[in-house]
Amino acid sequence: MKKLVIVGGGFAGAKIARNLQKKFETVLIDNKDYFEFTPSILRAIVFPKHLKRIHVHHRDYLEKTKIVRGKAVRIKNKKIILKDGKKIGFDYLVIASGSKYNNPIKAEGMLIADRGAGLTTHNNKIGRSKSILIIGGGPVGVELAGEITDKYRGKNVTIIHSGDSLMNRNSVKARNFARSFLEKRGVKMIFNERVEKKTKGFVETDKKNKFECDTAILCTGIKPNSNFIDKSLLDWKGFIDVNNHLQMRGSQNIFVCGDVASVNEEKTAQAAEKQAEIVIKNLELMGNKNENEKNLERYHPKKTISVTSLGRWNGILENGNFVMTGIIPAFLKGVIERRTMFRYGQI
């Protein structure tokens, strides 16, 4: 049986391991011991009890996979080298190492219990704060503002955004609804200013304006977890170059998918799972000695349905030019969460 090593236990890596663990000798390398439904982490920051609904230990759904908790630092001679010096050989490798985001939205190197304790600490800090400043007005910043104002109606919440409107890449209808909704909740918005300095008690923007706050939360940008890959194989943003089959440039037996791949589309959980489906098919084909690279599946990026929640009872659904707002999108996001976690054994 061929040996398949997967780096990263997020949406892409977890799906590949779960689907191929009976067809390959499978090893999952992850710096945490759990799968997390990251799209709901903003709710868990404000409602910590929600965390138990979006976490499941890798060992609970990967009964035939060897799970190695560690951090990859290099690939050499068909071996993954970990930070502790351990070397793990492979016939096939999947790099699904994801991306870095600002704490507490994403966390690395944690046990499931530590993740819960960390989010509880942030929740307590939000609860004590009278003024909360959110840096970044993309979907993450908007969702966080919606969650905070859902639970705490009396807090002074401000969004500082470098663009001229919230959720710049979304449709005009979605942007307008988000702004109107948050304004009715009392959220203040500062546009066309970029935070350059963040110290205890205040932030300062590129226009030298200072804003006082008890808590400031950074909700801007992702960085690919690609430090262990040779720089010659990365694009200018640090994403790993892939071909149409999601193979790393120059390597037939190494696939890349999820946030770390240089695929021109939004970095979402849905996209990661769609890419994982192609990788699964291609690994199955390559595992069949009668197949060759010409028969591999191609990945075709396309815009998928997006759901942005604005607290427990409101949200925005977009599908092409169609936009729906209100309670139905909020309900649908809950359905997606429950369906995903059920697949990983969370009931």
Beta-strand proportion: 25-35%
Number of helices: 8
Helix-residue proportion: 25-40%
Total strands:
22
Radius of gyration: 21 Å
Widest beta sheet: strand line-up: 5-2-1-9-19
Terminal Cα separation, in Å? 32 Å
The residue ranges in which pLDDT falls below 50 over 5 or more consecutive positions are: none
Largest sheet: 5 strands, parallel
Order of helices and strands: EHEEHEHEEEEEEHEHEHEEEEEEEHEEEH
The average pLDDT value, as a whole number, equals 92
Q: Please tell me what the overall shape is.
A: globular
SSE-based structural type: alpha/beta
Protein model, in words:
With 347 residues, the chain is of the alpha/beta class. The chain has helices at residues 11-20, 41-46, 58-61, 112-128, 139-151, 172-184, 269-287, 327-343; strands at residues 3-7, 25-30, 34-36, 55-57, 66-69, 72-76, 79-82, 87-89, 92-95, 99-100, 131-135, 156-160, 188-190, 195-199, 202-205, 210-212, 215-218, 223-224, 254-256, 306-309, 315-319, 322-326. The chain has a five-stranded parallel beta sheet, with helices on one face. The protein has a four-stranded parallel beta sheet with strand order 13-12-11-17, covered by helices on one side. It has a three-stranded antiparallel beta sheet with strand order 6-7-8, with no helix packed on it. A hairpin with a 4-residue loop joins β15 (202-205) and β16 (210-212). The chain is globular, with a radius of gyration of 21 Å. The model has no long low-confidence stretch (mean pLDDT 92).
